[in-house]
Amino acid sequence: MVEEEVPLPILFHDVTPIPQEDGPHPVCAISYKEDFTEAMNYLRAVLRANELSARALKLTSICLKLNPANYTVWHFRRRCLQNLSSSPSTKFAPESIQSDLEFSSKLGGSNPKNYQIWYHRRALLEPTFEAEMIKQKEGKEKGKEDEDDIIQKAKEELNYINGVLENDGKNYHAWSHRQWVLRTICFPPSIYNSELDYVHKLILDDPRNNSAWNHRWFITHKGCTRKPLSSLEDVQKEITYAMQCAEVDPFNESPWRYVIGFLEECKKYSGSEGNDVMEAADVKSLINSCEQEITKMRGNLGSTEYDVDSCVHLTSAKIDILEMKGDDISLEQAANLAKDLETEHDLIRKKYWKLREKEIRSRLSGSKTDY
């Protein structure tokens, strides 16, 4: 049975609505719909009275259905939920959290990029999730049932995000929220493995989805809590994965940046005091291996109808790798490639490549071999 809506004048029979004040001579008054004007007039009165009641909560539902982007209403709604909570140990009552997650899901269906809705979901879950994180850090004991319940809630939130990303795989708010969930909860390793499988499917659907590539980096680094990767095998696996994607479409910048990101990270941390991740010889081998693969790929591309020199992202990656090697021959080759991009193949970024060439040649004057 559907609950019958009580008209606002009856629900707030003891409240005098406060109309919007546009001044004595408004230049361009907005023509609001009648139901919107009525709801907002009552909301102003309730806000002024600081009434954090059940009927005030009901009023926020009406206002948000009319305008889901109103941050003030969302904030006031959370204050109402907190005031109405019957749970002494949590900010919001568990039943309120669940019902409001469902409410925000309904509003989010037609507003998937509404920041206020995503923030509301986070604000609802944050007290529970962060309390769990504090317990983990302090080593406090917790019941297996409580732990399973929190992980289940987090999995449900990930499933909700899956549905949003299915419609738009580049929704920034959805990805940001997903990474917050993964950072906040100490998931078992199986979750990270399933996340890798999930993001692999998204990359297959759209190899140029930079959001998916960014998330893969995030997952391989365990939510940025482990930096850099400490296993040579893990690094090789990720570089091989990206190189295979680049081979399918060498004009796709995403896998090239992924490869360069790993190589730069390995080079930065190897051999530095207190940060021995892998031997310098291993990093040198990785860099040389990637250079060989790129050279091979350029050769294969040259045998097709495509102009190998027009593949800017492949050439850009080779320049970066040659710079990492750092010897005179490599630097000279990198400078020449940058010159080619500047003068012929990437004119839209002419000034950028001119600067890169200048920087590389400045290293030639007093260069030393990095690897």
UniProtKB/TrEMBL annotation:
<keyword id="KW-0677">Repeat</keyword>
<comment type="similarity">
    <text>Belongs to the protein prenyltransferase subunit alpha family.</text>
</comment>
<dbReference type="GO" id="GO:0005953">
    <property type="term" value="C:CAAX-protein geranylgeranyltransferase complex"/>
</dbReference>
<dbReference type="InterPro" id="IPR002088">
    <property type="entry name" value="Prenyl_trans_a"/>
</dbReference>
<keyword id="KW-0175">Coiled coil</keyword>
<dbReference type="GO" id="GO:0004662">
    <property type="term" value="F:CAAX-protein geranylgeranyltransferase activity"/>
</dbReference>
<keyword id="KW-0460">Magnesium</keyword>
<dbReference type="GO" id="GO:0004660">
    <property type="term" value="F:protein farnesyltransferase activity"/>
</dbReference>
<dbReference type="Pfam" id="PF01239">
    <property type="entry name" value="PPTA"/>
</dbReference>
<keyword id="KW-0637">Prenyltransferase</keyword>
<dbReference type="GO" id="GO:0005965">
    <property type="term" value="C:protein farnesyltransferase complex"/>
</dbReference>
<feature type="coiled-coil region">
    <location>
        <begin position="331"/>
        <end position="358"/>
    </location>
</feature>
<protein>
    <recommendedName>
        <fullName>Protein farnesyltransferase/geranylgeranyltransferase type-1 subunit alpha</fullName>
        <ecNumber>2.5.1.58</ecNumber>
        <ecNumber>2.5.1.59</ecNumber>
    </recommendedName>
</protein>
<keyword id="KW-0808">Transferase</keyword>
